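Recall that a protein's primary structure is simply its ordered list of amino acids. Everything else, from secondary elements to tertiary packing, is in principle encoded there. The following example makes that idea concrete.
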Amino acid sequence: MEKEEKEYILEKIMIEYGNELVRLAFSYVKDKEIAKDMVLI
C-alpha cells in the first residue's frame, strides 16, 4: 500500500470517526484540547 493510499484511508477514517475518538480520549484525560491533540497528532 502506497503512502498516498494510506493517507487517503486515514483521512476517511478521521472524517467518519474523528469526533467519537476525541470523545473517547476526553473520557480519559478530561481536557478537550489534550483529547484533540491525542487524536489529531
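The longest helix spans residues 3-29. The chain has one domain: 3-40.
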